[in-house]
Amino acid sequence: MTASEPSGAPTRPIHVTETLVADNALGSVPADWDADRAVTALYSTHYRSLVRLAALLVRDVATAEEVVQDSFVAMHGGWRRLRDSDKALSYLRQSVVNRSRSVLRHRVVVDRNAPKPAPDMPSAEHGAIALLERSAVVSALRTLPPRQREALVLRYYGDMSEAQIADIMGISRGAVKSHTARAMSALRSVLEREA
Amino acid sequence: MTHIDHEEILRRELRAAAEFIEPAADGLTHIRARLSAPRPLAVAWVMVGWTTVGQPALVRLDQMFEAVAEWLRPALHPVAERLHPVTERLQPAYRKVRAVFMPRTGPGGRPSRYAWLRPALAMAAVVAVVVVGSFALAGVPSGMISQVGNVFGNPAQSSHNHGHGQRENGSGQPIPTQSSGNRGASPSPSASCSRSAKRASSCPRSAKASASPSTSPSPSPSPSPSPSPSPSPSPSPSPSPSPSPSPSPSDTGGSINPPSSS
User: B47: which residues sit within 8 A by CB, 6+ positions away?
Assistant: First the structure.
């Protein structure tokens, strides 16, 4: 999908194995498959990339795994209502993004009401987050608003088109462009330092 | 430093960060455990209902049937004795009819001439059952209703009133009924049912979140129901099939192998 994307840069390298595999053909399952079989097939193909996507959004691997597992369970429950089995991966991605957003929203409330920990006591998830945010760019990503972060992650980690991002985030393409541009301008100083 | 370079840097950094993220290999096991796990609170409620209401009701129903049978036995015995001569008289006729419809052999060892009647009657009975059943399920056709209305008087008025959903006041002006307008305002049970059916997949989670102890104080409303609800002081009603919510790898049927974590 990224290669055939009309608005994308043609010289952009494509690492299909590590990206979210935006191609629908790889995310589709035959229509006559039952939910168990579809979950198994999609798990074996996309679980890791979905966990990585969720981890970039929620900054916690354990929570990311939980989010993705929730999404698989939800897809299994709604398999009969899923009209187009070709869109199973799209459904999963959307579910992951929405649930990650819910996690972040919940985390904001929890952090607001939680007592401050002692400064010499790192939290349990501190190690995972620190591992994830070794890069200055990724840690700067944390400072962005959630929507801008989602747009950047879906765009540059998921290699998705603006239309796909708009579909997943439930916003218009113009809003995707706006979020991406603002996020890039916010990250510009960090990116130039990295370059 | 162009914009393309920024995109490349961001893409490279994101992928490098994602390289370190390796999900656990038992993800599918967790998913399947959550799919196969019973809904704990619902199961606890069913168990409580069965032990407190279902089993005693079944026992009482059995006792009641036995008592009724004992009470009816002396009353029905004289009736059976009175009907005995009638049944004795009907026995030869019954045997004749049975012999006619027996398909195998006639009196001389040949197949009966009327043996074909048996499957034909069976087919006719099936067709009759299907027709009657379809009429019962689909309801009586509206044309038949209107014809019956025509036969039994003032058909035009009744069909007019039913058709437009209006009544007439004393001066003949139509009074609009609130059939359509009020339906949306009033809380109809069907709407709530459809809404709940729409969210059927999230039902257990919502039930888990709000354990609703106000409906009955008997079961413990904790989100993780212990397998022995024992809500009443009845002698150990806990059937304890233990709906263990903890996912164990053993209860996932082994047709699916978790992918190798490379």
Answer: B229, B238, B239, B241
